[in-house]
């Protein structure tokens, strides 16, 4: 009887380990898909859909979000990467690689007989120590003119100096106060177009054309009206139209609308931005009045333009207001330009909040998307550096933190020490991968850097990916935003713990099956 019990127990352990191994393999596959892109020598990934459309990119979050991944554990990791992108705008590859290392190391310990609970306990202790240690290496950035800002943009912009220059110029124009605003995303100011000239200007781009070519192409010193609605008569439903009262109401609304359009035309407005469609009759009157109208403007662009010109959005029913009331809703722009080649309208200068746009040019349609992603990464990193300071890059700070975490391992009693060991291994992973991608032996180079950091006391030492020599990352100008590193470590810890806690995988019943059984009852 006891032998039978023992056999069942062993079978259960194997089954639970199998679930853990399945999840671990899925995480490892996702990490493998992006780890080759890490570092200055990282290579690109080609993504191909069923129609043969191709995207070539070095951007981790783009690869993760576009790749086909059906395993639930894989989707968990992808969601963590998306959260990292949303929160700090960069560092998704680092977070993914470290999560893969944490899970892999944790599963190895469990396979050796260490209880999962003890591994997780050690992970928590190690991660807490790592986050405390990492914050000690942060250098604040006080001024946008600091050369550090340029270096951060250059590193995040994958050595594209033209993009880094544009991003830094835009940051200076926007100002430190705006960059510190938690509701402002610097990356939203990036626009990339095929055939466009690289430039930064104070204004916003509306990715729509004016309604017709008879409307003015350029305007200066103009009033701007923003309608957060359709510029059409109010509707009467079909059922009501069949009654005399309903038809009378319809005629009244048509008359009121025409009067409102004439009123708007008399306000001296030069540009009207409309959230939805515009009535044909309104288009004709406004064209004759020399007003540029843009319909179906994207909500994000509408909001940015409204802030720039200092306008207040109004609904179509609000057009009934007296002229003196409507005047209070108007904004003001210095210049409006319709670019027929790019199929855009540029709104430049205004009496509202300062708003810069970074226009990144690309020679061909194939590289537009990648140029935009590179610029957005650079912008996000600059904003993050202003908010939270910088740390030395190249995996140097993670390696320095790993040495500090390693020191607490001997002071931990019991098997939780094995979980701490997992954190040390994960912290070493970014540098090991960067070095491997550069064509060097990661074990040899990691040993060289650890010895040099211990000997000199410098946490900023890492490997120069060109020469293979141990070099100070500060002197080399390889700097990363501290918040990106901190958030990546937190994200990796969260997903690793979540995966390690799963010991059984059960397929859910379909919702319709559940409802059908309830109905039978």
Question: On the 0-100 scale, what is the average pLDDT?
Answer: 86
Kindly, what is the distance between the CA atoms of the first and last residues, rounded to a whole number of angstroms? 41 Å
User: Portion of residues in helices?
Assistant: 40-55%
Largest sheet: 8 strands, mixed
Mind telling me the CATH superfamily name of the largest domain? Answer: GroEL-like equatorial domain
Layout of SSEs?
Blueprint (H helix, E strand, L loop, with lengths): L1 H34 L9 E4 L5 E4 L2 H7 L5 H17 L3 H20 L4 H21 L10 H10 L4 H14 L1 H4 L10 E5 L4 E8 L11 E10 L10 H4 L2 H22 L3 E6 L5 H9 L3 E3 L4 H11 L13 H4 L4 E9 L4 E7 L5 E7 L2 H24 L1 E3 L3 H14 L6 H22 L4 H15 L4 E3 L6 E3 H4 L2 E3 H19 L10 H10 L1
Parallel strand pairs: 3-10, 5-6, 6-7
Antiparallel strand pairs: 1-2, 4-9, 4-10, 5-8, 8-9, 11-14, 12-13
Helix pairs in contact: 1-3, 1-4, 2-3, 3-4, 3-19, 4-5, 4-16, 4-19, 5-15, 5-16, 5-19, 6-7, 6-14, 7-14, 10-11, 15-16, 16-17
């Amino acid at each position: 009887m006891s032998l039978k019990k023992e056999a069942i127990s062993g079978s259960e352990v194997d089954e639970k380990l199998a679930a853990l191994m399945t999840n671990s393999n899925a995480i490892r596959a996702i990490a493998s898909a992006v780890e080759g892109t890490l570092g200055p020598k990282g290579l690109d990934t080609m993504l191909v859909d069923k129609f043969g459309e191709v995207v070539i990119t070095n951007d981790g979050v783009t690869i993760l979000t576009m790749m086909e991944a059906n395993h639930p554990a894989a989707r968990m990791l992808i969601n963590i990467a998306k959260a990292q992108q949303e929160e700090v705008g960069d560092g998704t590859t680092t977070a993914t690689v470290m999560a893969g290392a944490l899970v892999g190391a944790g599963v190895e310990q469990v396979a050796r007989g260490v209880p999962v609970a003890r591994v997780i306990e050690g992970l928590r202790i190690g991660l807490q120590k790592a986050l405390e240690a990492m914050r000690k290496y942060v250098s604040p950035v006080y001024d946008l003119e600091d050369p550090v800002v340029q270096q951060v943009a250059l590193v995040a912009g994958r050595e594209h100096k033209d993009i880094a220059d544009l991003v830094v110029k835009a940051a200076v124009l926007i100002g430190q106060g705006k960059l510190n605003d938690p509701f402002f995303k610097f990356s939203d100011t990036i626009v990339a177009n095929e055939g466009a000239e690289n430039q930064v200007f104070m204004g916003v781009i509306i990715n729509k054309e004016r309604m017709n070519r008879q409307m003015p192409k350029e305007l200066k010193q103009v009033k701007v009206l923003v309608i957060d609605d359709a510029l059409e008569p109010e509707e009467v439903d079909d059922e009501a139209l069949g009654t005399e009262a309903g038809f009378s109401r319809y005629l009244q609304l048509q008359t009121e609308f025409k009067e409102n359009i004439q009123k708007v035309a008399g306000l001296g407005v030069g540009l009207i931005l409309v959230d939805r469609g515009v009535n044909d009759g309104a288009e004709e009157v406004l064209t004759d009045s020399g007003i540029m109208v843009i319909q179906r403007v994207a909500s994000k662009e509408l909001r940015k333009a409204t802030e720039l010109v200092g306008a207040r959005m109004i609904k179509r029913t609000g057009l009934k207001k007296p002229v003196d009331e409507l005047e209070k809703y108007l904004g003001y722009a210095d210049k409006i330009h319709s670019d027929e080649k790019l199929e855009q309208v540029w709104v430049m200068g205004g009496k509202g909040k300062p708003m810069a746009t970074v226009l990144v040019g690309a020679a061909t349609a194939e590289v537009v998307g990648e140029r935009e992603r590179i610029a957005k990464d650079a912008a996000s990193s600059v904003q993050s550096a202003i908010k939270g300071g910088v740390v030395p890059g190249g995996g140097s700070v993670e390696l320095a933190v790993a040495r500090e975490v390693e020191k607490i391992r001997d002071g931990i009693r019991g098997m939780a020490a094995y979980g701490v060991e997992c954190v040390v291994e994960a912290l070493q992973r970014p540098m090991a991968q960067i070095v491997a991608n550069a064509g060097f032996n990661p074990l040899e180079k990691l040993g060289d850097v650890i010895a040099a950091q211990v000997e000199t006391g410098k946490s900023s030492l890492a490997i120069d990916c060109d020469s293979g020599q141990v070099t100070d990352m500060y002197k080399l100008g390889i700097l990363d935003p501290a918040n990106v590193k901190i958030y990546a470590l937190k994200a990796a810890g969260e997903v690793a713990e979540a995966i390690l806690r799963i010991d059984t995988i059960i397929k859910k019943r379909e919702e319709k099956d559940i409802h059908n059984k309830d109905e039978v009852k």
